[in-house]
Request: fold
Amino acid sequence: MAKFVVTPSSETQRAAWLGGTIPEVERVRPGLWSVPVPIPVNPLRYVLVYVLELPDGVAIVDAGWNTDEAYEALVAGLRVAGYAITDVKGVLVTHIHPDHYGLAGRVREMSGAWIALHPADARLVHDRYDDSAIDSLVERERAQLVRSGVPELTLDELAGASMMIRHMVSMAKPDRLVEDGDRLDLPGWDLRAVWTPGHSPGHLCFVSPSRKLLFSGDHVLAKITPMVAVHPQSAPNPLADYLDALAAVRKLDVEEVLPAHEYRFLELAERVDYVMAHHEERLAEIERMLGGASDGVCCWDIATGLTWSRPWETIPPFMRRAATNETLAHLVWLESRGRARRVLGEPELWFAGA
Reply:
């Protein structure tokens, strides 16, 4: 597949991304700022928090991780824009992952701001982040990895891989639930919510028709593709949801995409086309592997044999688990189309479709 390169709408952001640094706070346009908030021990390095000016303060899109460094960066970024943390009136969370949701509770404690989340992600908050439910979630993850054929020696390491970041989230139940098509009550803004499930069940984008802007969260990024995986808290067929949501946002009339990572860019439709083609290539690669395995093959063995951005043996445990669950999402999509079939067991075996 020929590489498609989007046009950055911020050369300084792109230069920072390519240079391995964190970009500066930027005034995107009148009434709108971009504040990078660092992510610890993560190749993404930062999340871009967007600050929307209101008559009586600001609202922010996403918040960052719950670390002192992230909080201080958010406070400093708001100061550059002329505001304090106490001026935050609302936190629009694109989805429940720690780099977007983790700091929302602390922001609310300091400012009294409301937190908004889609109901599908709001339903996951307790099981994902409440201390009383964590062990159960890890056991469900472990059971899925067993069915995927993960070797016994690496099972516990992969099942509990995300526990190292558990403390970076402050569990905060949302104050407002935002459904697809809802218009946000933000004076001076005409933001409309677009439900874009896949990366998480309740992922939201926010579009401003008058400004022709799309706050895309992790749904559409400039260079990488978001993780779309089957796991204990996912929808049954998250890749189908994701591809449908891509097709929906492709129709939006926007001139600039404001993602949560990397840098802002211009060509939404072309980037969507490229991402969809990437998934078609991955599906075809998996089908070829199934076609060559007459006795069936488990998900883990497929994942270890696929083409990744780096050699499998250099991928850390958390990302190996993600890669396995992503592979399972593609297998489930193929199964739903009759292009693959599975035989239940421990592990489950996958075959080419009829």
Summary: The longest helix spans residues 268-291. Residues 178 and 342 are 37 Å apart (CA to CA). The mean pLDDT is 93. The longest strand covers residues 46-54.
